[in-house]
Amino acid sequence: MEREKNVESKMNIKRNILIFPLIMVQIYLVGVIFLYVLGPWEWPTHKPALFYLLIFLYQLFFGLGYLLSINKSKRSVRNLKPKSVDRFLAIMIIINFIYVIFNFLHTVGLNSFSISNIIDAFVNGILNPSVQYKMKFSADKFGGSYFTYFSVLMAPVMWSVFPLSIYNFKRLKLSYKLIVLISLFFELARWIATGTSKGIIDVILIILVVTVVKYMKKRALDNRNRIFDFKKYRFRILVLSLIVVGVFFFSNNVGDRVNQNWSNYIISNGNVNINVDAPLMKITPNSMKPTLIYLTSYLTQGYYAFSMSLDLDYYPMLGVGNSMFLMENFNEIFDLNLYEKTYQNRMSVFGWHPFVNWHSFYVWVANDVHYIGVILVMFLIGYLLGSVYKNVILYDDPIALVLLCLTTIMIIYIPANNQLLSYPTTFMAFWITLIYWNVRKRYKFVLRKNY
C-alpha cells in the first residue's frame, strides 16, 4: 500500500507520463491526415468539409475519453499475485511453444515438422513474398478446420502469453527465456513465410508497447536528473529499430506483389493517380519513394473510402456490421447475406473493391452506429486506453497489459480497417479479456498483489 501511494504521488507530479500515449496517438492520427493531403496519392475527397469535421470530432472525443479515464482518482482493479502470474506463464509458455509450431505448419501449409522445409519457407518469404502470399490461400492446412476452431477458442489465453512473457522476461528462468525467443521466431516466421505484414506489425507493436510501458514506469519512479541517460537513448534506438524492421518487411512484401511497378498499384487503388510532384515525394530520396507510395497507400486509402461512404445512405447493422468475423458467422447460422448492406459492399459503385481495398475503422463501426455514433465509440476507446495504461503503469496489472496491447493494435489500424475485431483470434482475445477485466473490477474476487 505504501509503495502504491508513493507511485501515485510521483505520477501526480509527472503527468506527462500518463499523457504520453494520448500524445502519441494524436500525433500518429494527425500524421496520417498529413500523408493523406501531402502524400503522393491524389485522393479525390468526397464532401471534404464533413469529412474533416468528423475526423476532428473523432480525435477530439477520443482525447476527452482518455483524459477522463486517467483523471479518475480511485484505483479501478485489484491485481493478481506475482506467484499467480508466474505459474500461469510457466505453464502457458510451454503450451504456447507447442501451439506456435503447429500454427506455423497450419498457416504455411506444411504437413510435417521439417527444419529444411521451415528454412525454405522462411527464406522464400523474404526473397519471394508475393509467391508465398498466393500459396497460403491454396495450401492444405495442417489440422484443418479443427485447428482453426481450437485457435479461436484458446485465443484469449494464447494471445496473452507474448505480452506477459516479454514484460516479465527478466524474471523468467533461462530455459523459459529461450522458449519464449524460439516461440517469437516461429510466430514471426509464419508471417514472413506467407509474405504477410500483418502479423509482423502486430508482434512489433506488442514489443513496442511493453518497451514503452517499462520505460515509463522507470521514469515515474526515478527522481534523478541525469545529464546522460544511456538507457533513454537505448530505448529510442530500440523503438526506431523496430519501426525500421516493420517498414522494411512491409515495403518488401507489397513491392514484390506489384513487381515494383507503381502502375499496378494504381489499378488496385481505384485508378487513383500518383502525383510525383507531391510535397512529400519531392523531399523523399528516390530509393525511398516506393516505400513512401506503398506505406501512404495503406495508411490513407481507408480515409478516401471513408469520404466516399459519406455519399451513401445508412442501413443499421445492429452491432454485427463492425466485424467481418461476426457477419460471416451470422450469415452461416441464419442463412443471411449481411455484407450486401454494408458501406463496404455498396461502395463498389465507386470502383472501390469491398475485399481488396481498405475502408477505415470509422466506416466499419458506422455500419452499426452511423457516423454520429462513431463519436461515442471513439470516446469509449480513448477511455479504455487511458484506463488500461494507467492500471499497468501504477499497479502492474497483467490483464490490463494484454488489453493495452490489443487496444493499441486497434488504434494503429484506425486509418485502415477494424483489424482487431475482424480476425477471429483477436476478436475473441479482446472481448473475453475485456469482459474478464471488468468482472474482476466489479466483484474484486482476485487477491491484491503484494509488493
Verbal overview:
With 451 residues, the protein is mostly helical. Helices cover 73% and strands 0% of the residues. It has helices spanning 2-13, 15-38, 48-70, 82-108, 115-127, 129-138, 144-167, 174-192, 198-221, 230-257, 262-268, 279-283, 289-309, 324-334, 343-346, 360-395, 398-412, 419-422, 424-443. It starts with a helix and ends in an 8-residue tail after the last helix. The relative contact order is 0.15.
Features:
mainly alpha; 19 helices; 0% strand; globular
Please specify the SSE layout and strand pairing.
Blueprint: H1 2-13, H2 15-38, H3 48-70, H4 82-108, H5 115-127, H6 129-138, H7 144-167, H8 174-192, H9 198-221, H10 230-257, H11 262-268, H12 279-283, H13 289-309, H14 324-334, H15 343-346, H16 360-395, H17 398-412, H18 419-422, H19 424-443
Helix pairs in contact: 2-3, 2-13, 3-16, 4-7, 4-8, 5-6, 5-8, 6-10, 7-9, 7-17, 7-19, 8-9, 9-10, 9-16, 9-17, 10-13, 13-16, 16-17, 17-19
